[in-house]
Specification:
Length: 288
Amino acid sequence: MVLSLPQLRDVAEARFTCLTERELAERRREEGVRVISHRGHYWEQSGAPGFFQPVHLLARLTPEEATPPTPLAWGYRAALTPETANVATGKVPVVRLKDLDTYDMSRLNSNRRSKLRKCQRTVRIVQLTGPSLLLEQGYPVVRDALTRTQHKKIPTLDEYLKGLRQYFASDHWCVLAGMVDDKLGGYLDGYIVDGVAYGFSAYYATWALPTNISTGLIYEFAQVCRRLGARTLVGGLHAREAAQLEQFKDELGFVVDPVPIQWGMNPLARAFIRWRRPHAYYRLTGQA
């Protein structure tokens, strides 16, 4: 069913293209990200310039492959194959849904099921097939959400509009939105690479939180990825300092799964990050 508002598709009919690692690397380059081919895998510059990780974070590399992709890198990390996990130098604390193929309401506790049902009664969840809704209503939602959570810097309007282009320049991004009486209450995005779904960003307006829109959007994104054959859904990295967020993810069925990695970092950068940003250091390396 096509809804009355333009560029919207009912979530039951949501679809997008699942990529290989090579295809994702090509898309990331098109989005302006620095991508390097190194020993059979593709690495992207992530965070501060000079830090690299595979474009597909959970791609499993051998120790010979998991090496700095450029001599100019001040830091890198890559997940190791299960057979070589014994030589890991750290872990990446991934938060994910395992056994996605069996994920449904029965995997939620009674409290979260109740919240999901409330959301289903009050929020219409759709896939965005074009930018019109976000151009009209998206920026206030992002600004409101980041003012509340403060987990990253609020973009300027120009930065936000520039970021929107990546969603619809290709067909691999899935953007789901929650509509409350035809007003945007929040949205999230993600993609699938080699059978692994990644939830990337999520923004929820403060006024829409009582509808449990966050529960509904994440659950429906998992269902879309499940229908498209993804094996697992990565919902970010473990934010040990954010107890409320971690409880929310736990009630949705996410688990913390430390994945063995090989990593390296310039000693000065390592000491600085460990001192000034210990939680970020933990997410980078799995170490305290």
